[in-house]
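the two lines:
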Amino acid sequence: MNFEINKQFVLDIKEAIERQDESMAVDLMHDLHPADIAMLYDDLNIDEAKFLFLLLDGEIAADVIAELDDDDRERFLSVLPTDVIAKVFIDNMETDDAADVLGEMSEDRKDEVLAFMEDIEHAGDIVDLLDYEEDTAGGLMQKEYIAVYSNTDVKSCIEEIRKQAEEVDEIFYVYVIGNEEVLEGVLSLKKLILSSPNTKVEKIMDDDPILVKTSTEAEEVVNLMDKYDLISLPVVDPIGRLVGRITIDDVVDVLREEAEKDYQMATGLSEDVELSDSVWRLTRARIPWLLFGLAGGIISSRIIGIFENDMTKLATTAIFLPLIAATAGNVGIQSSSIIVQAIANDTFDKQGFWNKIFKELRVSLLNAGALSAIIFLYSVFFLNSNVITIGVSLSIFIVVVFASVFGVIVPITLNKFKIDPAIATGPFITIVNDIAGMSIYLTIIRMLYTALM
Amino acid sequence: MNFEINKQFVLDIKEAIERQDESMAVDLMHDLHPADIAMLYDDLNIDEAKFLFLLLDGEIAADVIAELDDDDRERFLSVLPTDVIAKVFIDNMETDDAADVLGEMSEDRKDEVLAFMEDIEHAGDIVDLLDYEEDTAGGLMQKEYIAVYSNTDVKSCIEEIRKQAEEVDEIFYVYVIGNEEVLEGVLSLKKLILSSPNTKVEKIMDDDPILVKTSTEAEEVVNLMDKYDLISLPVVDPIGRLVGRITIDDVVDVLREEAEKDYQMATGLSEDVELSDSVWRLTRARIPWLLFGLAGGIISSRIIGIFENDMTKLATTAIFLPLIAATAGNVGIQSSSIIVQAIANDTFDKQGFWNKIFKELRVSLLNAGALSAIIFLYSVFFLNSNVITIGVSLSIFIVVVFASVFGVIVPITLNKFKIDPAIATGPFITIVNDIAGMSIYLTIIRMLYTALM
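prediction for all of em together
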């Protein structure tokens, strides 16, 4: 089963498609996992992909669609007839995947697809899921789960699993419900196997399970499942009725996406892009922060312009501009990223705001002292201008402390206003700190020059 | 079960400890999950923590130890007697956690702990695991799994699970082995429940399961489990014998750590630090890249020094230095981060090296054109120096293209030499690009000045 798509395989598939050789294509894809077929998509054009997909068994085709990247899927679905999407794909898809796919469509197309669906109950479940916000437990959960009443015995419970087994792909736990479908407990298959047929499930279930509400934020779901090492998590409505379950594989996807988003923000990309995306898309993801940086650079140039006279008097002033700017940027990103990570990992609220600032102050004083001392020694030995020597060491000290504290305040403030704090670890904080740092430096040099010269 | 440790709870616990009231402390901790007890540790000093931990039931204490941060655990274990560590903690720990804990100890202490262990078979399993590299499948796997021979029937298989159930916490799959313990297939508990007692497991198992070798890299394990949505993964030795299993919760931890490491590198932290770490530790994590940045800044200052005369002649030269440096840094980080992500996600090798460079060239030409045009218009309207106008627009163009391509080449090269390419998305690439960018700019200005003035 461990299979890597290699070049030869892609060539073979392309040949089969070119010859319109359906049986060869089916043969080639026979042993492939849907995730591998989805990866194959990257190497095919839209018509080739379409040819292949229409050869696939409905359930596999549905899995492949679920595995595709959002963009690839969108492009692909746009060339398929609505009734095929409904009957071949959506009818065979798990409810959570189906809701994700439909959620990306226009209202009109979505309604059209839903109208074409043959399994009305399935369609109803999907419509229910579409109501939840994407980044909540409701948006992550699926309607496929096994539920039994608490007074069921082990034997009937196994019967129930047999009945529902086809619908529910992977089963690890059985949810135990009472009146009005209120969740009363969770029973692992292991426990079920090891109990005698006549035992009531309420006797062997875990009656205090970890659960979430539909409104719980996706990030908290991830943290809970990670912290308690859970494989699946029941989701209840505001009055405790079981409405869905979240499985670990979906949470892994969320975790990965969150991490990538943070990383991309830190590195100045404004969209979720990949190496395989088009040149145009890659450019579009990169230009916004570059323009922002350009604006910052122009502001810098105007500030330096104000001090242009000083530089004519003391040309050495200019040589440390990049050092000050770079240090301010580096320090700010470091201090903000520690805050951003603490917020993401939910280890943030332990100490109060002023405690954090005070701690950052102590760290920054140590850093500032070290950097300032080094640059002081360097200037004393290699430059012969007291103004610059005192100016640059003093500036580095102030700039490091300022940029550190600023780097702590920005993400905390953004988080308070419900803006993703990760934005603070990228070009934004570098650029603001660059400007602030240089202004501090140039002002100090001017004051020293006036005082000492 | 959904429980948040609040301030009142911490106060209550501290009171119980101060009064040495064991029964109150036990009562308070009764409903806590080991992961929550581990979190409590952050609010206690070492003696308080020790008092609590010695009250815990062995298995729970072992789970708590496994949940602690590496540093906290190290500090905590250092104050406990070796025989308690062996008999209370390690004996009760799952083999993979035990190996992780022992792996952090000095050779002497490790041997001492192993010698004190009472469960010799368990100790043997742990010793086996200690031989594998930490970041391979062997280093991630555990020895706790259920294995049955392929000619076993369903009834005996359930018997076997009953026998081993106490040792193996979570069971989702049964591994089916043949002669010499060679892995022949995997059987899900769901299938097991739904089959009749006399069926042979070889008839119902998946006989082509996804598996990894002990030497498979951790990153590939993560990618496989994510791609195929696996809950657990069998690990075999070079001749196919089953030697362990990896469960998804361990992989989630790896995924999280990898993502955090990449993020920390991108933001210039040289160690894995958290907000709650000591001031000294935080400083130590931050100073290396700051010193590197300082060195870069000093080199910049010397390069600018070479051009000091030019700046006396044309003071406006200095005003765009920060713009050039910032743009070079931003562009380099963007292009390198896309490569770093592709390497991490295993989507890297699809196109060849030159394809990547060529694509980056096209993206960078678009970016360079846009930025260059804007700065040209700005200079034409707001500055009255042809040398600067042409110089800065030309420089931005060249610098953007250079920094982009450089940002692609560096992580690819690092990866080739088996150095973590994520290092390329942080201060390193900013600093190098800063210096290169300014050198290009100052050289161009000098050439233009000589030619036009």
